[in-house]
Amino acid sequence: MSSVSIGPATVAVALTTLWRAPEAVRPIDAPAVDDKPDVTGWVAAMDHDARLDLLQRVDSQAEAGEPVLVQELSGAWARVVLPWQPSRRDPDGYPGWIPLAHLRPAEPADDELPSPRTTGDDVLATGQELLGTEYVWGGLSGTGIDCSGFAHLSHRKHGLVIPRDASDQARAGQPVPLDALQPGDLIFFAFDNGAGAVHHVGFYAGEVNGTPTMLHAPRTGRRVEYFDLSDPSYATELCAARRYLPA
């Protein structure tokens, strides 16, 4: 029986998934919600359609030791917010549901992050360590990651807490003119030739042979990769850039 109660808690497993609701879990998702989750096996078992279907089911993930604020207990589940993953959905952090077995009571040092001392090149180098990682909607680890999770995790490894979703990331941070980009800046893409809603984020990775490049997690069925920013599929939708570095 879990001793977790409403209030501060901590992720007790290597990686847990943040679900929209307990009812969102499918039979194929059993390895992810097991008391000892096998996220690697879960991702490997899903075909392309099953991964696409995650869009309306999961929103993020949380690593061992990440702080959690439990707001409600319901059977074997806890409704939580994740303070290290800022979101417009809740002022206290990203909201969702986590299996109660994946949590433990908080301890005094559980909410400590590294001191943020870094440069854009440092953050980009951390992102490069995830090259080849599979795109998984809601993913936030080397097992699988989505575009905004890629940006978020690469910053957080340096003690920089930035919003979890691309649309929120595009509204925070330091605005950067598109003609003054530096490696490690986040660049954003929007529908309707850049005039609509933000739907994608990547890292500006500098120029390769005179061509501007991006490092990003593209979409389901692809892996973290470098991409030519002059390609019209992205060039026409480039709309904004932000920089997240310590003052």
From TrEMBL:
Residues 117-245 form the NlpC/P60 domain. It comes from the Bacteria. Pfam families: NLPC_P60. The keyword Protease applies. Gene3D superfamilies: endopeptidase domain like (from Nostoc punctiforme) (3.90.1720.10). InterPro entries: NLP_P60_dom, Papain-like_cys_pep_sf, Peptidase_C40. Keywords: Hydrolase, Protease, Thiol protease. Coiled coil: none annotated. Belongs to the peptidase C40 family. This is NlpC/P60 domain-containing protein. The lineage of its organism: Bacteria, Bacillati, Actinomycetota, Actinomycetes, Mycobacteriales.
